[in-house]
Every structure is written in structure tokens, then in C-alpha cells.
Design brief:
This protein is an alpha+beta fold. The chain has one domain: Phosphatase 2c, domain 1 (4-Layer Sandwich), CATH 3.60.40.10. The protein is about 30% helix and about 25% strand. The chain is built from seven helices and eleven strands. The strands form two sheets. The protein has a six-stranded antiparallel beta sheet with strand order 1-2-11-10-7-8. Strands 3-4-5-6-9 form a five-stranded antiparallel beta sheet, with helices on one face.
Amino acid sequence: MSRQRHPPPPHAPLVFGLSHIGRVRSENQDRLLIRRFSDESLLVAVADGLGGGPAGAEAAQIAVHTLAEGVDAGNKSPLPCTGLCDLAQQANERILSLGTTDPFRYGMGSTLTAALINPRKLSFVHSGDSRIYLLHHNLLDQVSRDHRFLDELIASGDLLPEAAGTNPMRDMLDQCAGHPAFAPDNGLRSLLPGDRVLLCSDGLSDALSREMIGGLLAAATATVELIALGLLEAALAAGGGDNITLVVVQV
């Protein structure tokens, strides 16, 4: 299991991230990124290589490396949301180029979910089914939208929600980094002191109910590290059927 600790300057958001292979997979195809800026802002990201797909781990690594490369190249202040979207587009172009020119990497792809966080706001870019949750006044909100093919059928009424769990296309994405028609979501949310933010791969969100995630994230006296470890332990106890990656931030 890999962990990332980043000691904060005074009044900066607290953050802790980890990635675990789980109990079933033979390879961890998830990647995470945490970067601090000098003005107390954070860039955090989770990328999940397409499970079972060619070069999934490599696609996830390219996704987070492209973001890191963009902010490490002399950026001492946070990127605007447009800059974050531009880096996501660069990541997509790199993955797509490899996935269309190298037969051993054909179709490679990764989710990409990234957020810029400071004590006042969260701006994000998102493609795939990794997630962003926001805990505000002990109420949990899923900020991101899953880009799963079946979700569109459920929304249109063409598929019953209870039938989705056994559908062989249940994990198919209609958006990810490496997609020819890459069109990530992006947005902005206001934050207040005490808010908590969770970014995670579907190895966590598929294993745990919304209520369990909210309850663990809302633990009043827990540190971000204890919250992250508690979420991981719960996902492993639920079977650990996929790689599990998460980043917890407290404003």
C-alpha cells in the first residue's frame, strides 16, 4: 500500500492519500497525486486505469504525471480551472496517441478526477467513474457524475436500476482519458472551514454504501489519516474486489 503525507503550512487544508491493491487484483492500476502550492492551495487527483484493459496502469500514470508536470513546471500559485482542464486535455491526447498507434496499447484509458482546493473553494475536472464527495455541515454530496454507459439508460428509463448490477455492461464507461471524444465535466463549489472532501476510485465507492462513506467521513474527532484508513479498512472488509485509492482533505 502506498501513502502520501504532505505537512501543511498554517491554516492550509489537511490532506492524506493512499492506494491499495485490494484483495483480488494482481496489479494496482490506480494512481493518485497530491501537490501543495505556496498559497495554501492543493491539487489532488485520482486516476484508475481501465480494469483489465491494455496498459491500464500506464494510462493512469500518464494522467497523473501530466498534471504533476504541469504544476511542477514553475507554478507557484494555483492553476485556474481552465488550466486544470487544459492539463486534462493534454493527458487525454497523450493516452489517446499511444492507444491508437501502438497495437499493444490499443484502447488504453483511465479515469481522471482532479480538484484544486483552497479554504474557500473547490474547482474540479472529471472523466470516468472515480468520484468527488463533499461533506458540508455533515451532509454528503456527490460532486462528480459517473460516466457509465448504463447510467444514461437508467436516466432515460430504458433500464431498471435493479437490473444494472447484473448487466455485463455495468462497468463500461462512456467517458475517460484516452477517449476519442474526451469531454470532461468541470465545475466549482464553495467551501467553508470544517468541510471535508473525498476523491476515490470505484474500488471504494462500489464497495461501500453512500451512508457508510458519509458516516466515516463525518467522524468528528478523526484526522484525515484515520478517516482514510477507516475507509480503506471498510472497503477491504467488504471484499476488496478492486484497487482502492482515496484522498481525504479537510478544509
